[in-house]
Amino acid sequence: MSQTLVFKNARVFDGVNGDCAEGINVVVADGLIQELTTTAPKVADARVVDVAGRTLMPGMIDCHVHPFASDSVVQKMEGWGEAYRTAHAVRMLQFALQCGFTAVRDIGGGSFSMAKALADKLFEGPRYFYSGKILTMTGGHGDFRQVEEAPRYRALCACAGTVFNCCAVVADGVDECIKMTREELRQGAHFIKIMGSGGVISPTDPIWMNQYREDEIRAIVNECTERRTYVAAHCHPAAAVRRCVEFGVRSIEHATLIDDETAKFVAQRGAYIVPTLIIVEQLVQMGRSIGFAPQSQEKADHAWMSAVSGLDKMRNAGVKVCFGTDLLGELYRQQCREFALRKQVFSPLEILRQATSVSAEMMMQEGRLGCVRAGAHADLLVVDGDPLKDISLLEANGENLSVICRAGELVKNRLG
């Protein structure tokens, strides 16, 4: 049982409202926020942290991470082995927590094993949600085989033709999609991710290509609905975004090539979009120097041309936008630069909501994460300065955070 904490004299951003209450005392015990009060709380043997008027806000959520993606070149990632990928994941998750991300959504490659390591406190990291292996069709974005590789046809046993890699599994047809969805959910996946369009790092699919048939997508969505969870879909072009939302997908990842009409459709359906500008920017700038394949570099350049303008379309349509980064390999250190890219379009308040309450709502964690209220998880940050006026305070890899509290425990505390 963690020690009772009292954060004294805080200016509270609750994850939603731009008008912050001041002079608030926040009581934390048993990993939860117990009370918010303007009077001195009557708590025995509590540790008091005097916030001294600084901004106390919810811990942030990065809804699109790949901790096990130890390199942007898939062949290297596979070749270096599971131990190397795990060591990279630990380093990346520790970095994310120190930046103020007290929860992450591992959206391809995560596992029960990593979730248990975090739950058992084998290392200090954020709250961890994972999709397991991504479902992709043959030749889809998650099928990283080169064009010259021979196919793997089914043999005597049912598993002989199944293509796996460290982050995805190939599933074709309704029956295979159902089986693989059930398998990932059996292994504790919090949600399921599919490849709904072509992508950047895959070698054989055009970025404009729609992927998976309607019956396959609906079958996956139905399995998740029965499990009281949801489907996320990787989509770049507008056509893929629209059809996935129409078929029941809850969150769209990237949407770099979205148009105005599709953005309005997404908003009307109440679906969510998780843009990931920083990975596209970094691949455009660094791709050639880190050995990115020419065909992938061309696709990254194409996506970047409309990535920022796509945010305008989402904002104008009233789409519920979440926070995500999608960084691979050594690029993980650029996680906080996503704030700098988003402020070209969104206000500080909008970005803060994206990184807290909107992301929590999308993840079906409303009222538990991304907010400062009684009964919520005590995942909290204390910021030196006012991020509602200056979002760049969150761009400095945690340097402007005096306190990081995760599940009621002080991960960082500069206030004594």
From TrEMBL:
Keyword Hydrolase annotated: yes
SUPFAM superfamilies: Composite domain of metallo-dependent hydrolases, Metallo-dependent hydrolases
GO molecular function: hydrolase activity, acting on carbon-nitrogen (but not peptide) bonds
Protein keywords: Hydrolase
InterPro entries to which the protein is assigned, alphabetical: Amidohydro-rel, Metal-dep_hydrolase_composite, Metal_Hydrolase, Metallo-dep_Hydrolase, OTAase-like
Domain Amidohydrolase-related residues, every copy: 55-405
Keyword Transferase part of the UniProt annotation: no
Protein name: Amidohydrolase
Organism: Ramlibacter tataouinensis
Lineage: Bacteria, Pseudomonadati, Pseudomonadota, Betaproteobacteria, Burkholderiales
